[in-house]
Amino acid sequence: MKRDGVSDNINRLKMQIANTQRKLQAGLAAIEKNTGHIHPATAGLQGAFTATTNHPVPEKLTTTSKRATAPVTEPLTDFQDDLWFGTIAVGTPPKAFTVQIDTGSADTFLPAVGCDATCNGHTLYNPAASSTAVNRTEHFRLPRSGNVTGFIFQDEVTIAGVTAHAQPLGAADHYPVEFQAANFPPDGLNRSSQLCFSKKNTFAEPIFSIKLADTGSELFLGGVDTASFTGAFRNVSCNEGNFWGIPLQGLAVNNEPVATAKTITAVLDTGSTVVIGDDAGVKMLYSAIPGSKDASAILGPGFFTVPCDSVPTVGLTLVNGTLPPDQFLSTGVESPPFNIAPEFFNLGVLQGNDCVGGVVSADGLSFWVLGDVFLRNFYTYFDQGKIQVGFATPS
């Protein structure tokens, strides 16, 4: 996706949105199965959004005119502002693979030797060539727009020089279209916390941090990279340590509240490009943006446009997302929204003065997904020990 024009592959974005819904729903179902309790994100919209002011519905747009291991950094590559990926080494001897770093996934998988033609163009993992690979003789099937299928192995996985032993990973024998090389440059996918938390004592702090940008993007394991952010963090407690769900309580446009809710779970997901919300809440958001239009007839369900010459700042209010004391005293505002800058909210020109908005809706979704459109605005840490995240200004 390019910011200087409308998405050059809107179909890829739509596949990614469907993929995001399915991967998170499958992962949340697995949590319920394995723990016996329901994750807050699957409990439904505990408090649906209520508009603070009634606005007209956007008009429809129908035509196109080891302990104390030192923290380490893994540089990430930006692909068209659409996804970010790094490099891992797998097996003995180690072989390099590129992987998308995905906070919204519970799985790590790679295309394997023996995969059908859907894996063409990717580097293939060969368990038989690794002396540390162990076949768990378990088949896996991950629902996406299609299914990623294959078998589960254990092997050594190394990132930025830190190795985790006997790590489970899927050796895929089939990729759905969104993971094929034409749509997905990295070889596979890696859940971001795998190496940081695979052993409790790998790092002194069970924290990883992420910066997503055009240049200088990174995954930092074992703490925070003080050179990559400025100012203090605004901390937010998570509903659960799994899937990094945080409580969303309001929506804002240009720092003015437009909708509030009791509490809705929002999942931080580096594997998703856009912000995805429930249909009613997203419509309230765009209804408060003058000149916005419903673009579903052109781009598909859930898409809206905003005027290119007045792209707004869209904000999300998060529970406990308070400012540090010194900033609170200087601004007089205890909990302002977490803002999405116009340059990240704008996905590109559709036609004329209509630009595609970076928040889309998905019918029947019981939680929100905060993808890269949101995360690019912050340097974000994820703390498994305290079960919280923090947001600071990227440098």
TrEMBL record:
Tell me the keywords, alphabetical order. Aspartyl protease, Disulfide bond, Hydrolase, Protease
Peptidase A1 domain location is 84-392
Residues forming the catalytic site: 102, 269
Listed GO MF terms? aspartic-type endopeptidase activity
Q: Which cysteines are joined by disulfide bonds?
A: 115-119
Q: Which Pfam families match?
A: Asp
Q: Which GO terms describe its biological process?
A: proteolysis
Q: Known PROSITE patterns for this protein?
A: ASP_PROTEASE (PS00141), PEPTIDASE_A1 (PS51767)
Q: Which Gene3D superfamilies match?
A: Acid Proteases
The UniProt entry, under PANTHER family, shows:
BETA-SITE APP-CLEAVING ENZYME, ISOFORM A-RELATED (PTHR47966)
What family does the Swiss-Prot or TrEMBL record give for this protein? Belongs to the peptidase A1 family.
Designated name of the protein: Acid protease
- State the organism of origin: Mycena albidolilacea
Traced from the root, the source organism's taxonomic lineage reads: Eukaryota, Fungi, Dikarya, Basidiomycota, Agaricomycotina
